[in-house]
Amino acid sequence: MTSRRNPAGLTMGVKLLLMISLLHKLSLAKECGDGFHESQQGICCKLCPAGTYKMYSCIHNGSRAACDLCPTGSFMDRDNWEEKCTQCKSCGPDEEVALACSVAQDTVCQCMKGLKRDADSGVCLNEKTHTDDAAATSAIVLACLLTLILVVFTVILLFRMRKPRWSTLKLKFNPSGVTNAKG
Questions:
Q1: What element of type H or E holds 145?
Q2: Beta carbons within 8 Å of 41's beta carbon, 6+ residues apart
Q3: H or E element in which residue 174 lies
Q4: pTM of the entire structure?
């Protein structure tokens, strides 16, 4: 008994293996879950921890990607799949460093002594200056309101004081028409 190879059957077997491989990769992608990321090759790689970034993807399912520490002046505050870290922020004018930037945390700034952060603008202001600004704004609003009241009052007075010319003439009824009382 001799065995004959069936080229069509072989092709079907290869197609089946490729299909199974593809389905396996798709199921892995759905199964990666928290703490993992699917690489471009369809492999579930562990995320890089905070303070590091991804240099290369992993080569085996479930292994960690090649991660490296964030360079000086940058940070990464969460587990990630990023290819670079975020640049540390600098404190602004009238601010000082409360907590220096580290590989896992951005710079934390606070207002310099004697200043307070304005809730609306986020800018550090002298507490007295901020209070003076509020008082000046209130004074301007009050002055505008008083000016408006004076203008309305003046218009009303002018309207009442002004008599139309025709009202100064005394008119009397005449059957032949209306005539001036003087004439």
A1: helix 127-161
A2: 57
A3: strand 171-174
A4: 0.51
DSSP 85-132: PEEPPPP-TTEEEEE--BTTB--EEEEPTTEEE-TTT--EEEHHHHHH
In the chain, which stretches have pLDDT less than 70? 1-10, 13-14, 17-30, 128-135, 163-183
Cα separation of 36 and 7, whole Å? Answer: 41
Largest CA distance in the chain: 150
- For 125-178, write each residue's pLDDT tens digit: 987 654 556 667 777 888 888 888 888 888 888 877 776 555 555 555 566 665
CA–CA distance, 96 with 176 (Å, rounded to integer): 96
